[in-house]
Specification:
The chain has about 270 residues and is α/β, with parallel strands linked by helices. It is built from 12 helices and 8 strands. Strands 1-2-3-4-5-6-7-8 form an 8-stranded parallel β-barrel, surrounded by 9 helices. Helix 2 links the parallel strand 1 and strand 2. Helix 2 packs parallel to helix 3. The protein is globular and about 75 Å long.
Length: about 270
Protein backbone atom coordinates (compact mmCIF):
# COMPACT_ATOMS: atom_id res chain seq x y z
CA UNK A 1 0.00 0.00 0.00
CA UNK A 2 1.37 3.42 -0.95
CA UNK A 3 2.20 5.80 1.86
CA UNK A 4 -0.36 8.55 2.46
CA UNK A 5 1.34 11.91 2.21
CA UNK A 6 0.24 14.83 4.32
CA UNK A 7 -1.83 17.45 2.49
CA UNK A 8 -0.54 20.96 2.07
CA UNK A 9 0.38 22.32 5.50
CA UNK A 10 -1.98 24.63 7.38
CA UNK A 11 -0.98 27.34 9.83
CA UNK A 12 -3.48 27.02 12.72
CA UNK A 13 -2.83 30.60 13.84
CA UNK A 14 -3.70 32.10 10.47
CA UNK A 15 -6.63 29.72 10.16
CA UNK A 16 -7.97 30.86 13.53
CA UNK A 17 -7.45 34.59 12.90
CA UNK A 18 -8.86 34.49 9.38
CA UNK A 19 -12.01 32.94 10.87
CA UNK A 20 -12.31 36.00 13.14
CA UNK A 21 -11.18 34.26 16.33
CA UNK A 22 -8.33 35.04 18.71
CA UNK A 23 -5.22 32.83 18.61
CA UNK A 24 -3.50 32.45 22.01
CA UNK A 25 0.16 31.48 22.16
CA UNK A 26 2.65 30.46 24.82
CA UNK A 27 6.01 32.20 25.13
CA UNK A 28 8.70 29.53 25.43
CA UNK A 29 12.11 30.16 27.00
CA UNK A 30 12.57 27.02 29.07
CA UNK A 31 11.23 24.11 26.99
CA UNK A 32 13.90 22.23 25.06
CA UNK A 33 12.00 19.21 23.71
CA UNK A 34 9.03 18.48 21.49
CA UNK A 35 7.00 17.80 24.64
CA UNK A 36 6.35 21.53 24.86
CA UNK A 37 4.19 21.20 21.73
CA UNK A 38 2.03 18.60 23.47
CA UNK A 39 1.71 20.85 26.52
CA UNK A 40 0.68 23.76 24.30
CA UNK A 41 -2.04 21.66 22.68
CA UNK A 42 -3.24 20.24 26.00
CA UNK A 43 -3.51 23.78 27.39
CA UNK A 44 -5.41 25.00 24.27
CA UNK A 45 -2.70 27.23 22.81
CA UNK A 46 -2.59 27.69 19.04
CA UNK A 47 1.08 28.58 18.80
CA UNK A 48 4.45 28.52 20.50
CA UNK A 49 6.41 31.77 20.63
CA UNK A 50 9.92 30.31 20.80
CA UNK A 51 12.11 33.12 22.06
CA UNK A 52 15.67 33.22 20.72
CA UNK A 53 15.94 36.90 21.59
CA UNK A 54 15.95 36.22 25.33
CA UNK A 55 16.82 32.52 25.60
CA UNK A 56 19.60 30.33 24.23
CA UNK A 57 18.45 27.80 21.64
CA UNK A 58 20.29 25.85 18.99
CA UNK A 59 18.73 25.80 15.53
CA UNK A 60 18.59 22.00 15.74
CA UNK A 61 16.50 22.14 18.92
CA UNK A 62 14.12 24.64 17.32
CA UNK A 63 13.78 22.41 14.26
CA UNK A 64 12.88 19.38 16.39
CA UNK A 65 10.27 21.37 18.32
CA UNK A 66 8.86 22.68 15.03
CA UNK A 67 8.45 19.14 13.70
CA UNK A 68 6.72 18.05 16.92
CA UNK A 69 4.33 21.00 16.65
CA UNK A 70 3.02 19.73 13.32
CA UNK A 71 1.79 16.53 14.94
CA UNK A 72 -0.21 18.47 17.54
CA UNK A 73 -1.73 21.15 15.32
CA UNK A 74 0.30 23.91 16.98
CA UNK A 75 2.10 26.57 14.97
CA UNK A 76 5.82 26.92 15.78
CA UNK A 77 6.85 30.58 15.64
CA UNK A 78 10.32 31.87 16.49
CA UNK A 79 11.21 35.32 17.75
CA UNK A 80 14.57 35.95 16.14
CA UNK A 81 17.11 38.50 17.35
CA UNK A 82 16.32 41.18 14.74
CA UNK A 83 15.28 41.63 11.13
CA UNK A 84 18.97 41.02 10.31
CA UNK A 85 19.12 37.62 12.04
CA UNK A 86 20.98 35.29 9.65
CA UNK A 87 19.09 32.22 10.96
CA UNK A 88 15.66 33.39 9.79
CA UNK A 89 15.45 31.58 6.46
CA UNK A 90 17.19 28.51 7.90
CA UNK A 91 14.53 28.22 10.62
CA UNK A 92 11.77 28.49 8.04
CA UNK A 93 13.42 25.83 5.89
CA UNK A 94 13.47 23.58 8.99
CA UNK A 95 9.69 23.77 9.49
CA UNK A 96 9.02 26.93 11.50
CA UNK A 97 5.69 28.46 10.41
CA UNK A 98 6.36 32.06 11.25
CA UNK A 99 8.91 34.58 12.42
CA UNK A 100 8.43 37.25 15.06
CA UNK A 101 10.70 40.20 14.32
CA UNK A 102 11.40 42.36 17.40
CA UNK A 103 11.91 46.11 17.48
CA UNK A 104 10.62 47.05 14.03
CA UNK A 105 10.89 50.81 13.83
CA UNK A 106 10.60 51.67 10.14
CA UNK A 107 8.93 50.52 6.95
CA UNK A 108 12.37 49.61 5.59
CA UNK A 109 12.90 47.20 8.51
CA UNK A 110 9.43 45.70 7.93
CA UNK A 111 10.23 45.15 4.26
CA UNK A 112 13.57 43.56 5.21
CA UNK A 113 11.68 41.15 7.47
CA UNK A 114 9.28 40.23 4.66
CA UNK A 115 12.13 39.85 2.16
CA UNK A 116 13.82 37.30 4.43
CA UNK A 117 10.69 35.32 5.26
CA UNK A 118 8.70 35.19 2.03
CA UNK A 119 9.41 34.06 -1.52
CA UNK A 120 9.09 36.20 -4.65
CA UNK A 121 7.08 38.05 -5.71
CA UNK A 122 6.30 39.08 -2.10
CA UNK A 123 9.83 38.80 -0.70
CA UNK A 124 13.29 37.53 -1.57
CA UNK A 125 13.56 34.28 0.41
CA UNK A 126 15.93 31.78 -1.14
CA UNK A 127 14.47 28.54 -2.52
CA UNK A 128 15.85 25.49 -0.72
CA UNK A 129 14.36 22.56 -2.61
CA UNK A 130 11.93 20.21 -0.84
CA UNK A 131 11.11 21.85 2.52
CA UNK A 132 10.40 20.12 5.83
CA UNK A 133 6.78 21.33 5.82
CA UNK A 134 6.17 19.20 2.71
CA UNK A 135 7.78 16.11 4.26
CA UNK A 136 10.72 16.70 1.91
CA UNK A 137 8.77 15.25 -1.02
CA UNK A 138 9.50 16.71 -4.47
CA UNK A 139 7.26 19.66 -5.25
CA UNK A 140 7.17 22.21 -8.07
CA UNK A 141 9.07 25.29 -6.90
CA UNK A 142 6.24 27.64 -7.87
CA UNK A 143 3.74 25.62 -5.83
CA UNK A 144 6.06 25.53 -2.82
CA UNK A 145 6.55 29.29 -2.93
CA UNK A 146 2.84 30.07 -3.14
CA UNK A 147 1.90 27.65 -0.37
CA UNK A 148 4.63 28.73 2.02
CA UNK A 149 3.97 32.43 1.44
CA UNK A 150 0.35 31.78 2.37
CA UNK A 151 1.12 29.99 5.66
CA UNK A 152 4.30 31.77 6.79
CA UNK A 153 3.42 34.34 9.41
CA UNK A 154 5.43 37.57 9.52
CA UNK A 155 4.98 39.33 12.85
CA UNK A 156 6.43 42.83 13.32
CA UNK A 157 6.80 43.99 16.91
CA UNK A 158 6.25 47.62 17.87
CA UNK A 159 8.41 48.33 20.92
CA UNK A 160 9.50 51.98 20.67
CA UNK A 161 8.01 55.44 20.16
CA UNK A 162 9.80 55.45 16.77
CA UNK A 163 7.92 52.32 15.77
CA UNK A 164 4.65 53.96 16.83
CA UNK A 165 5.51 57.09 14.84
CA UNK A 166 6.03 54.96 11.71
CA UNK A 167 3.11 52.62 12.39
CA UNK A 168 1.12 53.48 9.26
CA UNK A 169 4.08 52.80 6.97
CA UNK A 170 5.00 49.57 8.77
CA UNK A 171 1.43 48.28 8.57
CA UNK A 172 1.27 49.16 4.88
CA UNK A 173 4.24 46.91 4.03
CA UNK A 174 3.10 44.07 1.79
CA UNK A 175 3.71 40.67 3.36
CA UNK A 176 3.42 41.73 7.01
CA UNK A 177 0.68 39.71 8.72
CA UNK A 178 0.65 40.85 12.36
CA UNK A 179 1.48 44.13 14.08
CA UNK A 180 2.35 43.03 17.61
CA UNK A 181 2.71 45.38 20.57
CA UNK A 182 5.59 44.42 22.86
CA UNK A 183 4.23 46.11 25.98
CA UNK A 184 7.29 45.57 28.20
CA UNK A 185 9.83 47.20 25.92
CA UNK A 186 7.43 49.86 24.72
CA UNK A 187 6.75 50.95 28.30
CA UNK A 188 10.47 50.97 29.10
CA UNK A 189 11.12 53.12 26.04
CA UNK A 190 8.28 55.43 27.02
CA UNK A 191 9.96 55.93 30.40
CA UNK A 192 7.16 54.04 32.18
CA UNK A 193 8.54 50.56 32.89
CA UNK A 194 5.91 48.15 34.18
CA UNK A 195 3.08 50.69 33.95
CA UNK A 196 0.61 48.31 32.32
CA UNK A 197 -2.81 49.94 32.00
CA UNK A 198 -1.29 53.44 31.80
CA UNK A 199 -3.36 55.64 29.46
CA UNK A 200 -0.38 56.13 27.13
CA UNK A 201 0.15 52.40 26.50
CA UNK A 202 -3.60 51.81 26.23
CA UNK A 203 -3.79 54.52 23.58
CA UNK A 204 -0.85 52.96 21.73
CA UNK A 205 -2.44 49.49 21.70
CA UNK A 206 -5.78 50.88 20.54
CA UNK A 207 -4.01 52.74 17.74
CA UNK A 208 -2.23 49.57 16.63
CA UNK A 209 -5.58 47.75 16.55
CA UNK A 210 -7.09 50.49 14.39
CA UNK A 211 -4.15 50.89 12.00
CA UNK A 212 -3.67 47.14 11.58
CA UNK A 213 -7.34 46.71 10.67
CA UNK A 214 -7.19 49.59 8.21
CA UNK A 215 -4.34 47.84 6.36
CA UNK A 216 -5.82 44.36 6.48
CA UNK A 217 -3.37 43.13 9.13
CA UNK A 218 -3.95 41.41 12.48
CA UNK A 219 -3.21 43.16 15.78
CA UNK A 220 -1.17 41.39 18.44
CA UNK A 221 -0.62 41.90 22.16
CA UNK A 222 2.28 40.67 24.27
CA UNK A 223 3.76 41.38 27.67
CA UNK A 224 0.62 42.45 29.53
CA UNK A 225 -0.56 39.36 31.44
CA UNK A 226 -3.57 40.97 33.14
CA UNK A 227 -6.60 38.90 32.11
CA UNK A 228 -9.10 41.75 32.28
CA UNK A 229 -6.98 44.00 30.08
CA UNK A 230 -6.22 41.16 27.67
CA UNK A 231 -9.93 40.42 27.23
CA UNK A 232 -10.67 44.11 26.80
CA UNK A 233 -8.13 44.46 23.99
CA UNK A 234 -9.32 41.24 22.35
CA UNK A 235 -12.84 42.63 22.28
CA UNK A 236 -11.45 45.73 20.59
CA UNK A 237 -9.79 43.67 17.86
CA UNK A 238 -6.60 41.92 19.02
CA UNK A 239 -6.40 38.49 17.38
CA UNK A 240 -2.85 37.36 18.26
CA UNK A 241 -2.02 37.23 21.96
CA UNK A 242 0.64 35.64 24.13
CA UNK A 243 -0.76 34.34 27.40
CA UNK A 244 2.36 33.77 29.54
CA UNK A 245 5.84 32.26 29.41
CA UNK A 246 6.45 28.60 30.18
CA UNK A 247 8.61 29.82 33.07
CA UNK A 248 5.76 32.00 34.34
CA UNK A 249 3.31 29.11 34.21
CA UNK A 250 5.72 26.84 36.08
CA UNK A 251 6.53 29.40 38.76
CA UNK A 252 2.85 30.29 39.29
CA UNK A 253 1.64 26.71 39.72
CA UNK A 254 4.69 25.60 41.72
CA UNK A 255 4.26 28.57 44.07
CA UNK A 256 0.54 27.91 44.45
CA UNK A 257 1.15 24.26 45.27
CA UNK A 258 3.94 24.79 47.81
CA UNK A 259 1.98 27.64 49.37
CA UNK A 260 -1.02 25.37 49.88
CA UNK A 261 1.21 22.60 51.22
CA UNK A 262 2.97 24.85 53.74
CA UNK A 263 -0.34 26.36 54.86
CA UNK A 264 -1.80 22.86 55.37
CA UNK A 265 1.25 21.77 57.36
CA UNK A 266 1.07 24.88 59.53
CA UNK A 267 -2.65 24.35 60.16
CA UNK A 268 -2.12 20.69 61.05
CA UNK A 269 0.59 21.59 63.54
CA UNK A 270 -1.33 24.34 65.31
Amino acid sequence: MAAVLNPLPVNPVLQRMRAGDVAPGMNVRLGRSGDIAAIARASDHDFLFLDTQHAIYSTETLAHIAQACRGYGVAPLVRVRSCDDPDTSLLLDAGVMGIVFPDINTAAEARKAVNTAKFPPVGKRSAAGSPALFDFRPMPIAEVGRALNDITLVVCMIETPEGLANLEEIAAADGVDVIHVGCNDLLVNMGKPGAFGDPQIVEAIERVISVAAAHGKFAGLGGDRDLVRQVGFIRKGVKFVTTQTDIGFLIAEASRRTGELRAAIAQAGS
